[in-house]
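FAQ

Q: What does a record look like?
A: Structure on top, sequence underneath. For example:
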């Protein structure tokens, strides 16, 4: 039996190096998409290695941001006081993504939060296919560590603004392109 195209689908993992993608990073009030909230969304679109657009917003959560999260991200309760709610921010993000594949580092974290937000606000799972620099790193460098910090150290990428969405997007994109170049040089193909 064929599935109806009107039935929402969850995006699938793509293990490849694409020419067009949107790098995405979220900052949150904690680790659980069930009990914590998104406080910052950053997304940068690339085509053929060239930035073609960006989307960035702070998000006002219903809960207070803890001191730990403020120390980690630099995002305070005062900063998000007049920011849009997630209900107000999601349509803009959805329009910006426009169905393009999403690239994230440790994508299961970001997509867990986006799936929860999409389910709550659109009654549908997050639909975009995705790529994950952590999973690619694990495949290419099996005996190494794979945090974003480890990838930036491995490839000599500056870490200015770490734990802010747009800065993490830039680091993730550079790591992805470094791994693409490594595979090109070594003749490694995923498919």
């Amino acid at each position: 039996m064929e599935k109806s195209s009107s039935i929402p689908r969850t995006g699938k993992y793509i293990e490849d190096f694409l020419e067009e993608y949107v790098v995405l990073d979220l900052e949150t009030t904690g680790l659980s998409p069930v009990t914590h909230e998104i406080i910052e969304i950053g997304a940068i679109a690339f085509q053929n290695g060239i930035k073609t657009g960006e989307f960035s917003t702070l998000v006002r959560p219903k809960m207070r941001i803890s001191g730990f999260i403020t120390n980690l991200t630099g995002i305070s309760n005062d900063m998000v006081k007049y920011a849009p709610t997630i209900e107000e921010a999601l349509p803009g993000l959805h329009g910006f993504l426009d169905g393009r594949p999403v690239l994230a580092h440790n994508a299961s974290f970001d997509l867990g939060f986006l799936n929860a937000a999409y389910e709550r606000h659109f009654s549908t799972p997050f639909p975009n296919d995705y790529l994950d620099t952590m999973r690619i790193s694990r495949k290419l460098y099996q005996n190494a560590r794979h945090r974003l910090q480890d990838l930036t150290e491995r490839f000599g990428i500056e870490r200015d603004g770490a734990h802010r969405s747009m800065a993490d997007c830039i680091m993730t994109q550079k790591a992805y392109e470094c791994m693409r170049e490594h595979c090109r040089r070594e003749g490694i193909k995923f498919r």
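Q: Is there anything notable about this one?
A: The first strand starts at residue 20 and ends at 28.
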